[in-house]
């Protein structure tokens, strides 16, 4: 069976394997193979692979010694992986229990199984989970070389957005102008207005940015501080538990880069975003809109908030994923220049 594989020279194989493992991209259902001096590592999501690695389609063998949940169930279950946890979205309790038992009995490195018990709710955007296997809902998730501890019951975190977060993080350091620190060195200043446990802040800081993460969820902020320590960037991360609208005046004209990942209501915070923005600032604005005009409402809202004090230029319009029938989760990368 042909599957997407990263192809690297054999001497670079172990370093590449570690890189892919840290990003949780290795497809455990297939064997890593060697041919003509190259190593082929099967991957689960070729679009999430770093641009500096080559992805090819290649026939590879399934792991003979690995028992998968599908082997035990007789059908392919649907679930997301987050660290050593499997996240289910099953309405049938008996089916959910059967999948959980199969996950635990399989050879996959998964210890915890939870099933969604509610939609995302409240201003902290958390949901209820039924714990079907494992001791609790705390996990450690690895993504593109970063490590995130979190409790699914207390914070919002979506593994589906890993590729999007990596896309944005790779832009850090590319701004035409950046703020100058006390030593006279240019250091980009980035502020995540709804930071959670730090999936944007931590990779930004690892790329050298001075970062501020703001969130109204106290538990998320505690995890953000812990994750800054885990990743060795605590000296470049300030974590603030507060409504960002109450913080904006303190950081007026501070941010060279802003993340606004609150798709249902980010427009309510655009006045604060304009206050936070430096003279040359990029905003990553996330929105959910109808497929007939997914980008127009966001752009109009940003222009209304920022003009005429800033020139507004839309640099990227990107569909992140389908959200619901005829609705799209999108991102606009917008540059504000005073």
TrEMBL record:
GO-annotated cellular components: cytoplasm
Top-level taxonomic group: Archaea
Pfam families: TRM5-TYW2_MTfase (PF02475), Trm5_N (PF18093), TYW2_N_2 (PF25133)
This protein's record includes keyword Lipoprotein: no
GO molecular-function terms, A-Z: tRNA methyltransferase activity
GO-annotated biological processes: tRNA N1-guanine methylation
Domain SAM-dependent methyltransferase TRM5/TYW2-type: 79-338
CDD domains in UniProt: AdoMet_MTases
InterPro entries linked: MeTrfase_TRM5/TYW2, SAM-dependent_MTases_sf, TRM5-TYW2-like_MTfase, TRM5/TYW2-like_N, Trm5a/b_N
UniProt protein name: Methyltransferase
Keywords, alphabetical: Cytoplasm, Methyltransferase, S-adenosyl-L-methionine, Transferase, tRNA processing
PANTHER family in the record: TRNA (GUANINE(37)-N1)-METHYLTRANSFERASE, TRNA METHYLTRANSFERASE
């Amino acid at each position: 069976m042909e599957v997407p594989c990263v192809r690297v020279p054999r001497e670079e194989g172990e370093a590449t394997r570690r890189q892919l493992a840290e990003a949780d991209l290795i497809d455990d259902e297939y064997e890593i193979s060697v041919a003509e001096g190259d190593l082929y590592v099967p991957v689960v999501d070729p679009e999430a692979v770093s641009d500096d690695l080559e992805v090819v389609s290649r026939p590879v063998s399934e792991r003979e010694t690995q028992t998968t949940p599908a082997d035990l169930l007789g059908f392919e279950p649907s679930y997301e992986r987050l660290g050593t946890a499997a996240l289910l979205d099953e309405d049938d309790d008996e089916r959910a229990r059967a999948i959980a038992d199969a996950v635990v009995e399989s050879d996959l490195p998964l210890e915890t199984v939870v099933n969604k018990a509610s939609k995302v709710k409240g201003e902290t955007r958390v949901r209820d989970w039924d714990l079907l296997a494992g001791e609790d809902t705390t996990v450690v998730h690895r993504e593109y070389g970063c490590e995130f501890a979190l409790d699914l019951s207390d914070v919002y975190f979506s593994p589906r957005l890993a590729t999007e977060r990596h896309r944005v993080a790779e832009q850090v350091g590319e701004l035409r102008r950046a703020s100058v620190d006390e030593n006279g060195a240019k250091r980009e200043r980035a502020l995540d207005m709804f930071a959670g446990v730090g999936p944007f802040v931590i990779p930004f800081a690892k790329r050298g940015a001075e970062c501020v993460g703001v969130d109204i969820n106290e538990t998320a902020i505690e995890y953000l501080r812990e994750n800054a320590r885990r990743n060795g960037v605590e000296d470049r991360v300030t974590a603030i538990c507060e409504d960002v609208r109450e913080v904006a005046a303190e950081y007026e004209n501070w941010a060279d880069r802003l993340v606004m990942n609150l798709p249902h209501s980010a427009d309510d915070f655009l006045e604060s975003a304009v206050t936070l923005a430096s003279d040359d600032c990029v905003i990553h604005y996330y929105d959910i809109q109808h497929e007939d005009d997914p980008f127009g409402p966001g752009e109009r809202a940003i222009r209304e908030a920022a003009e005429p004090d800033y020139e507004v230029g839309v640099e990227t319009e990107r569909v992140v994923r389908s959200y619901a029938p005829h609705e799209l989760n999108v991102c606009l990368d917008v540059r504000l220049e005073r």
